[in-house]
């Protein structure tokens, strides 16, 4: 490996999940290396700090909980108004069947079933259901919202639904961009920190080589080779690369514990699949949730 030097250029080609995992492996090896070289010690500390920031950013990104507090609040009020409407209609169904309001309440309540309404549905899905249900109630010829006593609450539910939809399209998109930007920035910082550490290692390997240093560099090379083979080339060996790679990513020639940190964070995934984009219909509500089948 005399003509080979450590490089971080391949980091940019890794998915977010694999970047988080591979750089954690590199960090584990570096922080586990004992050295009295001050520049290297400082560089390793910077790698550890950058990795901790990226780990937090990646968990934010993979969790994709982009719902702002305002969105949850407005959705919660929407839930309360819709639950109130249902409660009023259910109360009217306690009337004798001979009462005219009984049949009218029955027809209005059926709208909940027709739309499969649930307060535990996603933010956008529930809000659009509210708007569609309100239209159907208002267009009914068999009853009026006023005589059922739900006119005011239907209007307020509609107002809340519109607020929710506005927050979904504006606030959630903004938060999504913010989280993605946070992860991109953290990735670059990690790459730069490891690159600086690698520059020092490459120099020391020429000027002050030791058996321990050679062992560390060989392990870092193996991490690079495995990442290129399994996460970038999809398991296809490049005959022109001149590198040796293990035959099984879970059983490498040198142990790496699959990126488990030395107290710096959680074990990160090695699946190249990135998290799905935040759905505007799957946020979940803040209410207890009920559903009419």
Write a structural description:
The structure is a single chain. The longest helix is centred in the middle third of the chain and has 57 residues, at 151-207. Residues 238-293 have low confidence and may be disordered. Helices cover 62% and strands 0% of the residues. The protein has helices spanning 16-31, 38-63, 69-92, 100-114, 123-139, 145-148, 151-207, 211-232. Helix 1 (16-31) packs across helix 7 (151-207) and helix 3 packs antiparallel against helix 4 (100-114). The protein has 293 residues and is an all-alpha fold. It is rod-shaped.
User: What is the terminal separation in angstroms?
Assistant: 67 Å
Helix-strand string: HHHHHHHH
Structural class: mainly alpha
| Average residue-wise pLDDT | 81
Share of residues in helices: 55-70%
Main sheet attributes: strand count, strand direction, barrel closure: none
Radius of gyration: 29 Å
Secondary structure tally, helices: 8
Shape descriptor: rod-shaped
* Strands, count: 0
| Fraction in beta strands | under 5%
Low-confidence stretches: 238-293
